[in-house]
Task: structure prediction
Amino acid sequence: MHCAEEHEPPINRRRYQRYEIDTHLHVTVLGAEQRVTMRGRALNISEAGIAGVFVAVWDVGTPVHLEFSVPVTSSPVRVGGLLCSHSGYRYGFEFVDLNPDQREIISKTCRTLALLQ
Result:
């Protein structure tokens, strides 16, 4: 006999696989009287977003600009984002309004990192 839990769908299933990435992550908070850019470290990336560590206090839902380097291009990636989650100093950002070029660079980054992990 199987447990009932085995028949329930996974609650924390993610749409996209996460891949470890160790790079600088700059976050500029938007909507404030004065734009503030904080520097941190990226922890992981997926096709939907990026997570990093910052010594800062931001509210979930805060719109941001993200800038980070990836191994598939020499230029930094600059995209819009939205703060989705945080736990302590760890923050998760969702990418928003990606153009086709940005989406392709992030997708290619994830495929490359998948081969390395």
